[in-house]
C-alpha cells in the first residue's frame, strides 16, 4: 500500500501565493499532515456546484480538493476564504 500524495492546480497555486506567508505556512503544514493521515480521515463532501469534491478547513480558509483513490492522489483545486470559496465555480 503506497503513500498518498497531492498535486496543486495552477489556480490553487495562485490562490496560495496571494496569501500572507504565515497563512501559506499554516496551509502547507495542514496539507502535509492531512496527506500523512489520509487513510484515517473522513473527507467532508461538498454539494453542487462542487459535487464530487471535498473540503479541508484551515482556520477561516478552505481547501477544495478531489480524491483519486486508485492513484492515491489528492488534487487541490481552490484555496480561498470560507466566505467566498463556495461561490467560485469549478472549471
Describe the structure.
It contains two helices and five strands. It has 91 residues and is α+β, with helices and mostly antiparallel strands. Strand 4 and strand 5 form a beta hairpin. A five-stranded mixed β-sheet has the order 1-5-4-3-2. The termini are far apart.
Number of strands: 5
Termini Cα gap: 31 Å
CATH topology: YaeB-like fold
Write the CATH architecture name.
Answer: 2-Layer Sandwich
Please write the string of helix (H) and strand (E) elements: EHHEEEE
Strand order of the largest sheet: 1-5-4-3-2
Rg calc? 12 Å
Number of helices: 2
The residue-averaged pLDDT reads: 92
What would you give as the CATH superfamily?
A: RelE-like
Morphology call = globular
Number of structural units classed as domains:
1
Strand count, sense and barrel status of the largest sheet are: 5 strands, mixed
The CATH class: Alpha Beta
Helix content: 25-40%
The fraction of residues in strands falls at 25-35%
Unreliable parts: none
Q: Helix- and strand-based class? A: alpha+beta
Explain the layout of strands and helices:
Layout: E1 5-8, H1 10-17, H2 21-36, E2 44-45, E3 54-58, E4 61-68, E5 73-81
Parallel strand pairs: 1-5
Antiparallel strand pairs: 2-3, 3-4, 4-5
Offer a quick outline of the entry.
The chain is of the alpha+beta class.
Keywords:
single chain, 91 residues, alpha+beta, YaeB-like fold, 5-stranded mixed sheet, 5 strands, 31% strand, Type II toxin-antitoxin system RelE/ParE family toxin, RelE/ParE_toxin
